[in-house]
Design brief:
6 strands, alpha/beta, globular, Restriction endonuclease, 33% strand
Length: 94
């Protein structure tokens, strides 16, 4: 969890392979991952805020997925981590 004066984020990492081409199947994200992050959002963010799920960057997962809206005000961002640059990627670059 990252906390600043007026904003907090919950970050979680997974060591699984995602595929940004699998949009109709939630990109390969499991139902358990959604439940887990939703629970974190309720417990640590009071149902309001941003959750970040971090997966390894690979050829089929080069940029962040479209944001998932759990509810009004509770969002899940799924972003790739580039091990070479040690940066999170929002788009094709770092």
């Amino acid at each position: 969890m990252i906390m600043q004066v007026e904003k907090s984020w919950v970050l979680d990492t997974k060591w699984k392979r995602l595929d940004s081409e699998m949009g109709s199947k939630n990109y390969g994200l499991s139902q358990a991952d959604f439940y887990q992050l939703f629970a974190y959002g309720q417990k640590y963010l009071g149902g309001q805020g941003d959750l970040v799920l971090i997966y390894p960057k690979r050829a089929s997962f080069m940029e962040a997925l479209p944001v998932f809206e759990f509810s009004e005000g509770l969002r899940l961002w799924v972003v790739p981590f580039d091990f070479e640059t040690r940066l999170l990627s929002r788009n094709g670059g770092a």
